[in-house]
Amino acid sequence: MGTTVTLVKDSSPATRAAGPPAPAVRRRGRRENLVGYLFVSPWIAGFLLLTAGPMAASLYFAFTDYDLFGTPKWIGLDNFTRMFDDPRWRKSVGVTAEYVVVGTPLKLLLALGVALLLAQSRRGQAFYRAAFYAPSLIGASVSVAFVWRSVFSDGAVVDRATALLGVRTGGWVGDPDWILYCLVALTVWQFGAPMVIFLAGLKQVPRELYEAAEMDGAGPFRRFWSITLPMISPVLFFNVLLETIHSFQIFGSAYVVSNTYCGPADATLVYTCYLYQQGFKNAQMGFASAMAWMLLLAVALVTAVLFWSQRKWVHYEEDAR
User: Fold this and answer.
1) What element of type H or E holds 65?
2) 276 falls in which pLDDT band (50, 70, 90)?
3) Which range has the top average pLDDT, 8-17, 34-43, 261-270, 279-288?
4) What range defines the domain where residue 183 resides?
């Protein structure tokens, strides 16, 4: 007798769960990837045309003699060696370093102090938070810089206020000893952004820690030093890093407050202002490009030092566990 073999299609749930064959899955995956690339294509085009492309061009120009109109001429490292022989370049480095070292800590101290006050529950808390944050919404715009220059000019509001105290400054804007601190006051006034970040960090500190410390007899300063600072140290590190990088990039306020000539005796000759002068006023784009890359290296070095130092004073939740 012959044997009959019958093939039966398996329609079990396990078979149905296996899904379509592999080629169909691959085709559907390619279609989904194509749709994703189409959605991000404007960003990719913008990055290549407006960021990566100009950066690559400036890196090439940094090793050339280029005046914006002629053909770039390769000169190697001459632009970089020229910097260290340029007294105005060294002056711009010193002015920028002073601005960063003085302005950044003052801004963060004020932001943290106000955040500690606003973290307490009180009437009108939302209004005060909005009022203190409002200057940061304006930003370091040209209009604000014009107003700031008017306020600190000779015979203006600040000059009259200090005169009532017996101190006649003659206006901070015209005094090479004071005009840089006019810029520092402007950046400190715009402390709203780091203040909001500090507020978010303070809200994450467990109240039980303060209650236990108070029961042990710890005073306000001890609680701040032993509980608040360690618990918000990641937020503090973030603010220090962000505000330091922003301070190195100051340009608009310095350019406007000093009336476009970088202050009396180059008192507000910040690095970016001198870079602008060399690139667009003196048409030395090769030298300006070299200055830009030197600034990038300096910011990268400072950032690396901050990341190295954070291992000693920044405490994360993983460390506590």
Assistant:
1) strand 64-65
2) very high
3) 279-288
4) 78-316
Nearest to 231 by CA among 123, 317, 122, 142: 317
| Interatomic CA distance for residues 286 and 274, integer angstroms | 14
Rounded to an integer, what distance in angstroms lies between the CA atom of residue 26 and that of residue 114? 56
Q: At what angle do helices 179-189 and 87-118 cross, to 10 degrees?
A: 30
Going by their DSSP bridges, the two strands 73-74 and 64-65 should be labelled as antiparallel
pLDDT for 1 equals 45
Residue 36, in any domain of the structure: no
Domain assignment present for residue 66? The answer is no
Give how many domains the chain has, as a whole number.
1
pLDDT score for 289: 95
Assigned domain for 244 exists: yes
Retrieve residue 189's tokens: 């006034």
CATH code for the domain in which residue 145 is found = 1.10.3720.10
Q: Predicted confidence band at 297 (pLDDT cuts at 50, 70, 90)?
A: very high
**How many CA atoms are closer than 13 Å to the CA of 279, on its beta-carbon side?**
16
Whether the CB-CB separation of 30 and 250 falls below 8 Å is answered with no
In sequence order, the β-bridge partners of residue 23 are none
Asked if residue 40 belongs to a domain, the reply is no
- What's the pLDDT at 81? 94
Q: With 0-12 CB in 10 A as exposed, 13-18 as middle and 19+ as buried, what is 227?
A: middle
